[in-house]
Amino acid sequence: MTARAMTRWKPGDRPRASDAMIRVDQAGEYGATRIYAGQLAIFGDRHPTARAIHHMAQQEERHRLFFDRMIVERGVRPTVLQPFWDVAGFALGAVTAAMGPNAAMACTAAVETEIDKHYAEQLVELGDSDPELSAAIADFQAEEVEHRDHALANGAEATFGYPVLSGIIRMGCKVAIAAAKRI
After folding, report:
1. pLDDT above 90 as % of the chain
2. Cβ distance 159 to 105 under 8 Å?
3. Which residues are CB-neighbours of 150 under 8 A, at least 6 positions away?
4. Deepest in the core among 92, 104, 111, 115, taking most CB within 10 A?
């Protein structure tokens, strides 16, 4: 048994702060893969926007796999809301893609703006306490910023009603983060 496996949570233990981080980050990365799956279901492989979305989806899948591994290795309880994120993420992706490429990019810009803030807050909270988790979050944060910047450079703000759409999606992200920390 590894030292990490021996640190698993047991009934009566106080939850570690990193447990909620891992739970919410895994849920968020899973939701991101579902958003991109919904967008790709509408755009297909031949749409000019699909190539960029596919690249971002691959990065999100790598992030999700890391957090899946952390959940198992550290004995973190995953969120019970995953079935909801499955449907809600896919629907958000499909609806924004159906609105057009700019709306799909607006979705990405909104989500990644919140995730950038969320990861920055986590890095401050972690400090030097968990180098493995901090390094992964910093790496993933850089890729999320890359996604946001790509979306902004590729028409996100040209979406009709961008401030409203972005605000609604960002509020949804905040609610999802808060819920996944606890549920």
Report:
1. 69
2. yes
3. 52, 56, 105, 108
4. 104
